[in-house]
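Hey, resending since the last one bounced:
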Amino acid sequence: MTAYDPSNVFAKILRGELPSQTVYEDAETIAIMDIMPRAEGHVLVVPKAACRNVLDAPPDALKAVALTTQTLARAVKAAFGADGVTIQQFNEPAGGQVVFHLHVHVMPRFDGVALRPHTGAMEKPDVLTANADRIRTALKEL
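The structure tokens again:
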């Protein structure tokens, strides 16, 4: 198995070396806005443990990520009045993984509305801030 690379973008965010729009944090996880969202309100749940993906993650990190994912799924659904939620997690290049630190995508979804394609285009910071504020408000109300 390939070794964990501590220079990945999520490791840098966890160390405070790169900015992020954090919407939730506990002792074991953070949830941040995806800067290239495929849906309005797209967040990423990231364990603080250094693990490449689900294949090498310690059981406690997986449990923490699952619980935080559930919390964020409820919050983004409420914050955006969504009809449902898509949760995605990718492992290794063949599985679609691009950033090699375990993370889970949580996206509010609406009937009849497709996910935006992943183009690499970054969302405007003010839009990310407004969406993060909506999610933070929803978290307080849950």
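The chain has a mean pLDDT of 97.

Sorry for the duplicate.
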